[in-house]
Amino acid sequence: MAMDRIISLQMSALLRKEMLETWRDRRALWMAICFSLLIPVMLAGTMVIVVKKQTEESTRLVLLGGDVAPLLEQRLRSDSLEVEALAEGEPRALLAGGYDLVLQLEEGFVDRYESFRAPKMYLYVDSSSTSAGRAERHLQERLGKLQQLVVSQRLTARGVAPQLLAPWQLQVRDVSTPSSRGALLLAMVPGLLILTLFVASLATSVDTSAGERERLSLEALLMQPVPGWQLVAAKMLAVASMGWLGSLLAIAALVALMPVMPLAELGIQQATTASGVITMGLLLLPLALLVAVVQILLALRSSSFKDAQTQLSILQIAPVMLLMVLDAARVDLADSYWQLVPLVAQQQWLKSLLVGDSVSLPLLLAGSMVCLLLVALSVAFGARALRRESLLGAT
């Protein structure tokens, strides 16, 4: 009983010391806060800009020779396509003057059109312009519909049913739900939240391991009659608290900015609830512990403080790249066994909770237990590593 009390007092003292050093580091604290708030703000701003560009921007088209074909000009004009007919002009100069496209009618366009000889149109486009592709697709769509109308009118005028050229009609019916569309558009958000966790704990993990070794304060700690696992566990809890804070701030900021995001224009229904937000924070806690202990072990194995920063900077990019590769490869991550893999499991749970879908509680608990088991194994491995004399000699 007395031994248990001594161990608990030692652990409390260690944890208090690590927590004080962690939260007194203003540089690491501000780095965690700023990066955590930066991701949701950038995401919201990007969505607003994209939707505004799609809904408000219109295509400017110059119709050279269009004065002889006023009906063509009238049919092409729409709310999102501004058409200006000119008798003559230089296409290159017009494109440089702010127009997106130039459509030139060949000489004798009206005569060839009336004699059914398929007159030519020349479309001039500047492929180096960022809006050229969108504008060209828009015009092709308008011209395609107009061409179908002309063909139908010509066939009808000659007593031929237009249905003869269309043996069937294809109608596309979208059966997706707001949740499924939201899962597709918000697929990158879980990876960014996980990246926030890595970045928020980076500076603290390097300072509490490689930094203390270079300042020789780690040697003083190892000389104390304290088990190695307690030392690793205390440092892990301190680092994890910083990373978890970053992820919680990112989640809170993201949910707070959702009313500002144009989700309705994208066909997404905001379904994130308060219980979902709490669940997102809790399910990231085991991952925060795992990330913290792995960062500490890698920093201890590094040769210097700068080397530790380099290694951990690469580490924080690796999980996001892994998740992106899995998504790009269209791997079915919804199977039960994927819910037991750290990082992948948290990504899938966050993706479901962000769009209001439910998460299987048994799978969530099982995946979290696997993550905590890896944490325990890492702490034990770190305790053995602290007993090596070469650890303090790394420079």
From TrEMBL:
Alphabetically ordered keywords of this record: Membrane, Transmembrane, Transmembrane helix
Cited Pfam families: ABC2_membrane_3
Species name: Microbulbifer taiwanensis
Domain ABC-2 type transporter transmembrane, chain residue ranges per copy: 33-375
Bilayer-crossing regions: 28-51, 183-204, 244-264, 276-300, 312-331, 359-381
Protein name: ABC transporter permease
Keyword Membrane: yes
The organism's place on the tree of life at top rank: Bacteria
Subcellular location, principal: membrane
Membrane topology reported for the UniProt record: Multi-pass membrane protein
InterPro entries (alphabetical): ABC2_TM (IPR013525)
Subcellular location: Membrane
